[in-house]
């Protein structure tokens, strides 16, 4: 009764009606009147309904104004974002749905409480979070809360792919992938123009060559033309072809025959005298090949009115041949491109060259530099190894080395090479598998697709040769 009296008293006061002391008995009787009691009950009911409506509207407004941030996504990449009502203290929401998710390739899973999918378009995507509260009738309309989800564009889509000028006298294909027999193995090699070059319509600066020689040797060459040198595409092409041509010359064939004799002596010898002779022969023969390429580039530059620096290119090459005792590997390298041989069960890696980094402060060296041949370290640029067997011989430009190995210190680590092979076998962001089997009819297509892998900040030309 006291609450009823308080309600009516407040109502009277709002209407500037005051109950004096001598009217208190009359007021008490007024409150007990049957008709008045009915009116008062109606007032209380209406008041409660009014308060409930206000609380409902206030709660809806609170949810509408509460920030709702959904994780950003990227076009073409699997997306997953948690959406749990308890996280936002929205346990009083009894029904909800999303409007607009399907439009961009996303869905909401009530079981996992996650928004998932693969976004199909970029931008500030406008969505509607439609919800009902427990206090609302079942047939009430949903409340609409606008929500924005940011979908970033696929970074790859921002790069142009402009064809290079086919009328250029030194033009070569922007992308080239080849699979072929080589010696008693096979070679899979791909050279791809970098995104930085494709974006401007400039040329692929990398190059490669390989060849079975008549004396049982096989050769693989990779060169990386300097992006800052205006004719480096020609320099790398000339370097690769020049090395192959050199080892096809009669004088080189004769010299390699001498290697065969020395190797047989070395296998049966217990001393290191034949080792020194072998090292000297490798130095002389491969050194002449590298120097001849240097002179060819020098002559070409003079004939074309260019500078030798215009043709700047790194150069690595490996010759290998099978003997009864195993495989002989001879190598040369100038620049920052590694050569590696993995043993049969991929438990050891043999590096066939060192990279022009470290003491040079990250600056590489090129076959066009005369000081390369005059430096006291020139003799250390050659390698000779006799291995019982091998699984892979790999030569790569820095367009592969930089994103996949990052630093030179990772190259002697067999685990890094195992990870690299796993990457080729499908453990990569795109899930692209390169099945390194001679009978694989899709091997070139698979390898070409794999070579397009995305690596932020690494958009240089890529060349990778794999002998297996």
From TrEMBL:
<dbReference type="InterPro" id="IPR001932">
    <property type="entry name" value="PPM-type_phosphatase-like_dom"/>
</dbReference>
<protein>
    <recommendedName>
        <fullName>PPM-type phosphatase domain-containing protein</fullName>
    </recommendedName>
</protein>
<feature type="domain" description="PPM-type phosphatase">
    <location>
        <begin position="186"/>
        <end position="467"/>
    </location>
</feature>
<dbReference type="Pfam" id="PF13672">
    <property type="entry name" value="PP2C_2"/>
</dbReference>
<dbReference type="InterPro" id="IPR036457">
    <property type="entry name" value="PPM-type-like_dom_sf"/>
</dbReference>
């Amino acid at each position: 009764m006291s609450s009823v009296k308080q309600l009516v008293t407040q109502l009277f006061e709002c209407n500037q009606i005051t109950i004096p002391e001598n009217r208190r008995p009359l007021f008490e009787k007024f409150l007990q009147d049957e008709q008045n009691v009915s009116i008062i009950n109606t007032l209380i009911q209406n008041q409660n309904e009014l308060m409930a409506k206000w609380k409902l509207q206030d709660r809806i407004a609170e949810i509408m104004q509460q920030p709702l941030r959904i994780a950003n996504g990227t076009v073409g990449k699997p997306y997953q974002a948690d959406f749990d009502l308890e996280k936002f203290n929205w346990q009083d929401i009894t029904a909800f749905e999303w409007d607009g998710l399907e439009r961009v390739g996303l869905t909401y899973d009530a079981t996992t409480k996650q928004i998932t999918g693969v976004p199909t378009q970029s931008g500030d995507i406008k969505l509607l979070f439609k919800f009902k509260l427990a206090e609302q009738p079942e047939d009430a309309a949903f409340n609409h809360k606008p929500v924005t989800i940011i979908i970033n564009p696929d970074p790859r889509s921002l790069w142009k792919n402009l064809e290079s000028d086919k009328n250029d006298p030194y033009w070569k294909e922007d992308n080239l992938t080849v699979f072929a027999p080589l010696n008693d193995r096979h070679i899979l090699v791909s050279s791809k123009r970098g995104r930085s070059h494709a974006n401007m319509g400039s040329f692929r600066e990398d190059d490669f060559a390989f060849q079975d020689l008549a004396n049982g040797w096989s050769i693989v060459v990779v060169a990386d033309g300097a992006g800052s040198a205006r004719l480096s595409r020609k320099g790398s092409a000339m370097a690769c072809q020049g090395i192959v041509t050199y080892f096809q010359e009669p004088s080189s064939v004769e010299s390699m025959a001498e290697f065969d004799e020395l190797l047989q002596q070395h296998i049966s010898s217990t001393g290191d005298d034949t080792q020194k002779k072998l090292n000297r022969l490798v130095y002389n023969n491969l050194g002449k090949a590298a120097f001849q390429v240097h002179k060819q580039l020098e002559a070409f530059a003079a004939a074309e009115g260019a500078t030798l620096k215009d043709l700047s290119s790194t150069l690595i090459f490996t010759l290998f041949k099978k003997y009864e005792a195993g495989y002989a590997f001879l190598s040369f390298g100038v620049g920052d491109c590694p050569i590696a041989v993995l043993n049969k069960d991929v438990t050891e890696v043999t590096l066939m060259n060192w990279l022009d980094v470290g003491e040079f402060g990250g600056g590489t060296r090129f076959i066009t530099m005369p000081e390369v041949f005059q430096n006291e370290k020139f003799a250390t640029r050659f390698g000779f190894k006799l291995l019982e067997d091998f699984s892979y011989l790999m030569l790569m430009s820095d367009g592969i080395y930089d994103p996949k190995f990052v630093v030179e210190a990772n190259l002697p680590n067999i685990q890094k090479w195992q990870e690299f092979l796993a990457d080729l076998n499908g453990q990569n962001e795109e899930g692209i598998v390169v099945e390194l089997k001679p009978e694989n009819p899709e091997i070139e297509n698979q390898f070409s697709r794999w070579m397009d892998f995305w690596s932020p900040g690494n958009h240089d030309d890529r060349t990778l040769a794999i002998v297996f």
